[in-house]
């Protein structure tokens, strides 16, 4: 059962590294964030590009060797079931790693200033989203 009303929830975009970290380290900050997503305490926005990247990363050898297929399926399913998928519209080129622009674009498309990431180059963009 979801514990927060829609207006109480923080609106965010979770970077792929946060979801992968939640899968691997079940006791860390990323796992607690993912639990908040499942419990409805945060409202995550995503798009087809982010979902495709997440599935691709979950299929990498270094991930499949460290996790079970059941755990990977669970995390993907819960991510999809508890996230709001929006159409990708905005296009920006503001980060060194071009493939990471999709996270900024999703924040812009959703009208939210909160990207949760562990990537240092994305963390430097704080002012861009504010």
Automatic annotation (TrEMBL):
The organism's superkingdom is given as Archaea
Q: Where is the PIN domain?
A: 10-124
The parts of the chain that form a coiled coil are none
Task: Give the protein name, as stated in the record.
Answer: Putative toxin-antitoxin system toxin component, PIN family
Q: Which organism is it from?
A: Candidatus Iainarchaeum sp
């Amino acid at each position: 059962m979801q514990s927060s009303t829609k207006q109480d929830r923080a609106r965010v975009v979770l970077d792929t590294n946060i979801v992968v970290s939640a899968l691997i380290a079940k006791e860390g900050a990323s796992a607690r964030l993912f639990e908040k997503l499942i419990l409805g305490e945060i409202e995550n926005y995503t798009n087809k590009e982010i979902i495709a990247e997440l599935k691709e990363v979950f299929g990498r050898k270094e991930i499949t060797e460290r996790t079970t297929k059941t755990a990977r399926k669970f995390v993907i399913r819960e991510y999809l079931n508890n996230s709001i998928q929006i159409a990708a519209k905005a296009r920006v080129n503001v980060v060194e790693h071009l493939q990471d622009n999709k996270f900024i674009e999703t924040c812009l498309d959703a009208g939210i200033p909160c990207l949760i990431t562990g990537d240092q180059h994305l963390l430097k963009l704080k002012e861009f989203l504010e």
